[in-house]
Write a structure and sequence with these properties.
With about 500 residues, this protein is α/β, with parallel strands linked by helices. The chain contains 19 helices and 24 strands. The radius of gyration is 22 Å and the shape is globular.
Amino acid sequence: MGYYVGIDIGTSSAKLTLIAETGEVINESNQEYEINEPKSGWKEIDPETWMQAVDLAMTDLLSGQNAKCVKAIGVTGQMHTVIFLGKDGKSIRPALMWNDTRTNERVAGIRQQLQNIPKVSHIANIISTGSPAMNLLWLKENEPDNFKEIKKFLIGPDYIVYRLTGFCQTDFCEASTSSLFDLNQGKWSSEIREMLDFPKDIYPEVKGSSEIAGTVLDQWKEKYGFSNNVKVLVGTGDNPAAAICTGCFAKKYPVLSFGTSGVLMYPKEEIDFSAKGKNIMFSFDQKNIMILVQGVVQSCGSSFAWWTKNILESTDFDQETKVDMAHLGESNILFYPHLVGDKAIYADADIRGAFFGLGTDTTRKNMTIAVMEGICFAVRQLTEVMKIPREKLENLKVIGGGSKNRIWMQILADILGVSVCQTEGGAGAGYGMALAAAGTMGEVSMDSVIEKTVHVKETFSPRTYNQKLYQKKYETYLKLHDALKEIFV
């Protein structure tokens, strides 16, 4: 029996999944690490920290297993984080992470420059703090000696592929979301490169996610007990990897990941620059390119965690949301959920959250429900600015930690006005890349595995009474952004 490993390099931990050729999960392992914050808004990590975590997790993952059965490894992880490799093949300095905001003051100026270049004006809509383009520019302007030492830059999980194989490359997902890529041409943009004055030879080659990057180096093969020629895929970002195993690609339906952030993924046949959302190019083989539009509510589960853990100092989520669902929407309290700004709806990093309508009769339960409602209002607004047709939203598949809360799922259904499917099984970027590895080796049909592993636990339908209440509250909610900007400008 063949085994396949999926490696997911997350923001705070490396998560590894071992599956059989049938798609069955054999074992999982997790190794945490910490990021560095040398200044406010700065977020960095030595990429070798990831490799050390992968090493420990791999040893644990394979404990008691026949490592010689491993045939291929797929790697995924956080998008945008940029790594700077020197001529000696080592990282020149800590990687600048996807959520680093040190370039905030420079973004508007670069966005204006891009808008003046017709061929790549579409990039002006997606460039933001934490993007490889901005972080490379920061290095060039603030650490010129380090910038001159760059041999190649890599993005997120590319570093693990490099350490396992010795080869540098990236995939269409990581490239197309870097703000350095011409999405119309499907290649690195010479116009952006010249505008930012970056050397051409520091760019990695772009390949399909399921192409073979190389074979596992002898040092790792011997350490883990692998047989010869264990293949390593080029890999991809975590959102496309999760889309693989949730049926988003195969079934062409949108998927909402209700995690720390709320990520809405929607496959399209063609790029639509008139709609908001990040157009991610994805290809298994470099021949057939698909478009995955991604929108995000940055403070989703993190808003709920902030409220329950930091403010209420409670971990009993069930008790905090133990309400009569028949009366959802009756409270006038509104919560604005953008605690850390917004990238997709307003592209406004400075907006923050707020409560509205508090009174002496307000209870902690009222406020807890308001937090959940506010996040769902933000999701609805996201679907509208992404121009996702209502018929496509019907039976929306929801994954992630937030999806486990029945109250939250009913609120979401009432606010969106469509049925919402609480999905279990098959979710997870690491599992998606393990599946991709098995599929690449011809061992498994991903469609058949999705049919077996992804199923709906419960469906929540919108209710007329509550839907009407939420429609009125949503109309008020839409006015909050401008009101807050007027107050706090």
